[in-house]
C-alpha cells in the first residue's frame, strides 16, 4: 500500500491561485480608495486633452490682440507698451527709471484691482498717484496717511502691503537717488515683495517689463475653462496649476503685457459669469463650450467653469459706543458744539480683521443680547480700558441708542448696535491720559473736524454719520450746531 502525501493549501498551485485572488481584491480596494484629487486630475486630463494646438494659439493671440486694441477700456494706469525690440541690458539709465516708474504704477493698480471693480478703483488710483507719484514718495509716507487715501476701498491689508513693499524696495534711498533705483523684473524676485503673489508678479513682469509670463485671475480662469470646456473644480489646486499652464501656452512673447490685459479684459467685459456675449466674442470660434452649446441643447456656456458653493458667511454681533467727551470749560449742554467736543477712537490689533485701523469702542457680544446686556458689556470694557465709570451719573450727560447697521465683509456679516454716550470729565480729555495704564492699548481723541480727515473704514464712517444724523433729528440742537459734513 502506497501512502500518498495529503495536499495542503500550501502547494505551489494553490498558493499561486490565492495570490492572484489577493491581488485582484487589493486592486479593487485600491480603486475604491482612489482619492478625490486623483479623480479630479483624470477628469481634468480628459477635459484638457492636448492643451492648445499651434493653430489655436496663433488664432487666439491674433484675434484677442486685435479686439483689445479696438475695445480696451480707457483707464489711467494703461499706456502703450514699451518697444519690445529693446534689450533690457542695453537700455539707457533713463529708460530703466521709466520702466521702474511704470512697474510702480502697474503694481499699485493691480493691488487696488484685487477684489474691487475697475470703476471703483479709478478715482482711488488717481488720488493715490497724485499723493505719491513715485515709489520714493510712498516709502516716505506713514500708515495713517496711506489708510486715509485707501479709506472705503476695503481689504485694508492691501494698503499695508503696498507701504511695506515700497519701504523694502527703496531701502532707505532718498528721492534724489531715483535714477539709481531698479524695480525687480522677474516673477521670482517680485514674489519676495510683501503682498505680491504669482498673479501680481506676472502682471508687473509682463506689462511693465515685457516678460513672457502668464497671469491667472478669476476672469482668466473663466475664459480658459470655456475655451477648453473644463468641468473640473476651478478651486482645486491641480486645476489651478493646469490653468497656469494653459495661460503660459497662450501668452504672446512679442507683447505679453497687452495679451494678458486682453485676456483679463475679455473675461471682465465679454466672457462674464452669467451673461456672456458670445456673439461678439473675438475667440468664440476656438471656444469648446460655445461649440458644445450649439450642438447640445442641454449644455450652456455658463456651465463652465463648474460652480463651487460659496462658504456661508459667519454672522457676528458687536456693541459700538461712540464716546463724545465735552471740554470741561464748555457750555452746559448735553451735546456740545462742533468745536468743544472730541471723540474717542481705539486702534485695532495689528493682526486680523481691519488690522491697525481706527474705530469707535466696540465689543463683540452674543447675538441674543438686549440693550441692557450690550451696555453692561460696553461699560465693563470702558472701565477696564479707560477707567471710565458710566455708573457715576454726574459725568454722563446723555446716553442714547441710535440704531443698528449691518456691515458685510467677504466672510463675515457684522451686525453693529450703535449708541451715543456723551460725557463730561473732570479735566476733560486729560483725564484719560492720566488714567489709561494699558500700554498695548492705542487710542486717541479727535475733534469733529479731524475725524473727517482720518482714514476710517466705510463701516466706521457709516456709524459716525448715523450719530450725526441722530443728533440733528432726534436731539434738540440750535441751528448753528446742525451744520456738519458727512464723511
TrEMBL record:
Swiss-Prot/TrEMBL catalytic activity: Hydrolyzes free adenine bases from 7,8-dihydro-8-oxoguanine:adenine mismatched double-stranded DNA, leaving an apurinic site
Function according to Swiss-Prot or TrEMBL: Involved in oxidative DNA damage repair. Initiates repair of A*oxoG to C*G by removing the inappropriately paired adenine base from the DNA backbone. Possesses both adenine and 2-OH-A DNA glycosylase activities.
Cofactor(s) recorded in Swiss-Prot or TrEMBL: [4Fe-4S] cluster
Gene Ontology terms describing biological process: base-excision repair; mismatch repair
One Gene Ontology MF term: purine-specific mismatch base pair DNA N-glycosylase activity
Region (Disordered): 1-24
The protein's name in its UniProt record: Adenine DNA glycosylase
Note accompanying the cofactor annotation: Binds 1 [4Fe-4S] cluster.
CC terms in the record's Gene Ontology section: mitochondrion; nucleus
Keyword terms, alphabetized: 4Fe-4S, DNA damage, DNA repair, Glycosidase, Hydrolase, Iron, Iron-sulfur, Metal-binding, Mitochondrion, Nucleus
E.C. no: 3.2.2.31
Record family assignment: Belongs to the Nth/MutY family.
Source species of the chain: Aquilegia coerulea
Location relative to the cell: Mitochondrion; Nucleus
Domain HhH-GPD stretches: 112-269
Amino acid at each position: 500500500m502506497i501512502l500518498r502525501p495529503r495536499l495542503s493549501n500550501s502547494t505551489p498551485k494553490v498558493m499561486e491561485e490565492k495570490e492572484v485572488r489577493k491581488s485582484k481584491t487589493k486592486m479593487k480596494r485600491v480603486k475604491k480608495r482612489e482619492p478625490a484629487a486623483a479623480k479630479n486630475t483624470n477628469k481634468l486630463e480628459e477635459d484638457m486633452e492636448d492643451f492648445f494646438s499651434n493653430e489655436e494659439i496663433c488664432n487666439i493671440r491674433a484675434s484677442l490682440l486685435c479686439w483689445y486694441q479696438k475695445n480696451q477700456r480707457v483707464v489711467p494706469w494703461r499706456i502703450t507698451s514699451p518697444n519690445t525690440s529693446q534689450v533690457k541690458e542695453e537700455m539707457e539709465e533713463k529708460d530703466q527709471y521709466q520702466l521702474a516708474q511704470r512697474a510702480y504704477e502697474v503694481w499699485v493698480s493691480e493691488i487696488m484691482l484685487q477684489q474691487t471693480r475697475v470703476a471703483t478703483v479709478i478715482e482711488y488710483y488717481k488720488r493715490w498717484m497724485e499723493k505719491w507719484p513715485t515709489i520714493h514718495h510712498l516709502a516716505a509716507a506713514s500708515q495713517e496717511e496711506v489708510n486715509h487715501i485707501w479709506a472705503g476701498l476695503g481689504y485694508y491689508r492691501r494698503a499695508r502691503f503696498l507701504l511695506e513693499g515700497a519701504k523694502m524696495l527703496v531701502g532707505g534711498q532718498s528721492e534724489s537717488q531715483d535714477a539709481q533705483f531698479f524695480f525687480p523684473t522677474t516673477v521670482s524676485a517680485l514674489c519676495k515683495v510683501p503682498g505680491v503673489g504669482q498673479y501680481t508678479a506676472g502682471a508687473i513682469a509682463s506689462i511693465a517689463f515685457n516678460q513672457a509670463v502668464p497671469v491667472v485671475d478669476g476672469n482668466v480662469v473663466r475664459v480658459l475653462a470655456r475655451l477648453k470646456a473644463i468641468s473640473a473644480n476651478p478651486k482645486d489646486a491641480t486645476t489651478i496649476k493646469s490653468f497656469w499652464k494653459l495661460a503660459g501656452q497662450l501668452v504672446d512673447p512679442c507683447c505679453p503685457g497687452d495679451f494678458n490685459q486682453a485676456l483679463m479684459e475679455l473675461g471682465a467685459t465679454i466672457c462674464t459669469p452669467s451673461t456672456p456675449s458670445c456673439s461678439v466674442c473675438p475667440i468664440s470660434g476656438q471656444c469648446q463650450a460655445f461649440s458644445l452649446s450649439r450642438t447640445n441643447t442641454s449644455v450652456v456656456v455658463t456651465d463652465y467653469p463648474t460652480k463651487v458653493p460659496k462658504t456661508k458667511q459667519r454672522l457676528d454681533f458687536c456693541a459700538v459706543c461712540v464716546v463724545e467727551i465735552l471740554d470741561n470749560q464748555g457750555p452746559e449742554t448735553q451735546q456740545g458744539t462742533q468745536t468743544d467736543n472730541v471723540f474717542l477712537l481705539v486702534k485695532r490689533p495689528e493682526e486680523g480683521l481691519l488690522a491697525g485701523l481706527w474705530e469707535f469702542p466696540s465689543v463683540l457680544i452674543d447675538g441674543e443680547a438686549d440693550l441692557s446686556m450690550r451696555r453692561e458689556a460696553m461699560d465693563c470694557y470702558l472701565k477696564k480700558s479707560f477707567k471710565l465709570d458710566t455708573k457715576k451719573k454726574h459725568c454722563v450727560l446723555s446716553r442714547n441708542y441710535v440704531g443698528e447697521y449691518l456691515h458685510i465683509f467677504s466672510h463675515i456679516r457684522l451686525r453693529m448696535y450703535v449708541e451715543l454716550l456723551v460725557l463730561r470729565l473732570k479735566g476733560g480729555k486729560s483725564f484719560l491720559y492720566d488714567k489709561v495704564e494699558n500700554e498695548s492699548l492705542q487710542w486717541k481723541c479727535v475733534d469733529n473736524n479731524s475725524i473727517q480727515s482720518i482714514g476710517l473704514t466705510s463701516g466706521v464712517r457709516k456709524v459716525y454719520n448715523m450719530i450725526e444724523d441722530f443728533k440733528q433729528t432726534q436731539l434738540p440742537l440750535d441751528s448753528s450746531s446742525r451744520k456738519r459734513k458727512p464723511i
